[in-house]
Design goal:
The chain is an all-beta fold. Helix content is about 0%, strand content about 45%.
């Protein structure tokens, strides 16, 4: 008998599906438009913002689902606790991706099957969902970057 494992985010509230695509979930200041990832719940930290400084102007915001590779590297060692990685550990690639609309850089794993040999600075990539680790009942997912086809 084959059972299907439950899939759930390894970090609740950091990514989800919006407009049919995987998106990072952050906040944005309604006064000046400054985006935040991960979510900012306190107040706008933009010193040029003229809005209220009590956090009342922050709203949920789904960040861009595409960006350009800013930097990338191999991750060839198992991260220390509290980070969780599969056993046995398998090296993976990470990419820092610049989201043009938000003018920020977000770090994430690159989808399995892609290595540093498949990436280049300036290359367009998109978000996807992938499995970070699993146990007997659950696959824990995270956002990952993959080259746009």
């Amino acid at each position: 008998m084959t059972t299907t494992k439950e899939r759930r985010p390894a970090i609740d509230g950091w990514f989800g599906t919006a407009e049919g695509e995987v998106r990072l979930l952050g906040t944005r200041c309604a006064s000046c438009g400054t985006p935040y990832f991960p979510r900012n719940e306190l107040a706008c930290r933009n010193p040029r913002c003229a809005g209220p400084k009590d956090g009342s102007e922050l709203e949920p915001y789904a960040l861009s689902g595409r960006g350009r590779v800013w930097s990338y590297a191999d991750s060839r060692y198992k991260p220390p606790p509290p980070y969780v990685s599969p056993e046995p550990f398998v090296p993976y690639t990470v990419a820092a991706v610049e989201l043009e609309a938000e003018r920020m850089v977000v770090l994430g794993q690159v989808a399995p099957g892609y290595t540093v040999d498949d990436l280049a600075v300036g290359m367009e990539v998109e978000l996807t969902e992938g499995v970070l680790y699993e146990d007997d009942d659950t696959e824990y997912t995270v956002w990952m970057w993959r080259p746009v086809r």
